[in-house]
Amino acid sequence: MDNNEKIPAERLKKLDSLFEAFSIIGDDTYVYLCDMKYDFSRWEKNLVDEFGLPGEYMFQAGEIWEEHIHEEDRKSFHEGIDDVFSGKSDGHDMQYRARRKDGGYDVCTCRGIILKDADGQPEYFGGAIRNHNQQSHVDTLTGLRNQYGFFEDLQRYINNNTTMRTFIVGIGKMTEINELYGYAVGNSVLQYFGRYLMDNVGDRGGTYRLDGAKFAIITETQSYDEIKNTYEIIRKRFRDSIKIHDKRIMLELNAATMMIDDFVTDNQTVYACLNFAYEDSKIKKHGDLVEFINNSEGDKISKTERLHVIRDSINQDFNGFYLVYQPVVDVETEKLKGVEALLRWRNDKYGVVPPDEFIPVLEGDPLFPKLGEWILQTALKDALEIQKIIPELSININLSYAQLEKADFTDTVLDIVDKMDFNPEKLCLEVTERCKLLDLDLLRNTMISLRSHGIHMALDDFGTGYSSVGILKNLSFDTIKIDKSFVQEIEEDEKARRLVNSILEMAVLYGTDVCVEGIETCGMCDILRGYEVNSFQGYYYSRPIEIEELMSKIKTEAGELCFSKTL
Ligand code: C2E
Ligand code: CA
Ligand code: CA
Question: For a substitution probing ligand 1, which of 363, 376, 398 has the most ligand atoms within 8 Å of its CB?
């Protein structure tokens, strides 16, 4: 502030106090204030930093700012400012593009008004510049920091190696509340809840509103028990119902927590882990607090560290990911009918990581659909190779609910199938009961549309969840795959045989083909041949193997193509 001598100290003080009064939260909006008698202004620091202005305090700031305005917008800006300073207008309201420090342009809306002195002379000119390209970090409904603010703070703690505990809590059935009482009530519920969290827990750390009805807290509290107790108090409070617009509303909550004590990770990975625990709380634990444990006893490397590297591989051209294929054979002939593509990941430091260790956590991640496309493309490319020798071969590919949730999923699949000139009848997409997390109508429409193009659909791991039958009733599948847990004991256990029998009868009822997974012995095959089963898959025929190995087996078996005990 070396030029400040030109403005009297008391005027500078007045400028500062007015400026503070002007300042409003919202990091996409910057405040500026100009003492017109001295043409001396104070501009908000964020704006100064982002646009590379000389400093927070500037003489003739209008001219300096004009330099930053896109040349096509400069003339109208200049005229607008001239009008303000010459007294022709009382304020301005315009939109222009302004150049950032890095050379790019942001679209800004600039509004300003004139404050006059006792004699009616213009004294101050002040207002706000809103940057439309800047992601706001504040949620307008609750006034809390939003998910961008959450991610930013989380990353800062990770970068600074600061041990923190994160906690997310969400209101279940928010859609129902909106439908039942209307959005105004729904909004008030969110505001009330956000305010309650801030008042009751906020003093221990930051409070955030994430997407929808999910809130987060980042706190220095290390103790799990303390968080659990706090959560039980919050839970009880909202079970007792709150009064909003004369309505008594009870809220059911879900929650998850996780320590950030491993810093070889990033905010997105932490969020994916927290979300995974949150889904568990919602779906399996009736809202009880679930903790994501990063380091199980004996683990040398933390889960978040490994997940971070795996997640990062998606952005590194899928480096480290590869597919293995497990044969599916015909029950009668034991000949190869198809293969199931199974995802693997490996690198030098972590070795081969099985899919169960990363898919369930990452499948809710925004990056997952991109990986899903890579799986589809890679598997179809390999399948085309196999089809050169076995033209009727089908390929089975597993889907995650996050892929199905995307509005353009069907188009993406059809596009890839079309571009690769793959026969859609030879593609079978496997979904698990986790898909019931999705809107059933959405799932039904997606499936109808895929099947109308000839693509087959299979229900995977049948019998393991709790609404398998419900899913079968509501959606139509071409195949159901019986989970290995049902057949493991059929050789020794009569009850297990009867259970499989009733599951298979159900399949007959719905008219689908049946594939039994987890066939490990000849004895299992013999028993199951007595039932209506179409195909077998399991270690007895082959473990999942890489494409090169599969191709060499197929080539040596070419005449026979019988996979019985040969792989
Ligand atoms: P899944 O779809 O049920 O895959 C079958 C799993 O059973 C595979 O485990 C396979 O190696 C294993 N298996 C096959 N035969 C036998 C057997 O005879 N005995 C025993 N005990 N196990 C057998 P894997 O490869 O570890 O995959 C685990 C799960 O990860 C898969 O279960 C699937 O849910 C998921 N997954 C794998 N690849 C993908 C993928 O590309 N996308 C998605 N969304 N999920 C995938
Ligand atoms: Ca599967
Ligand atoms: Ca399965």
Answer: 398
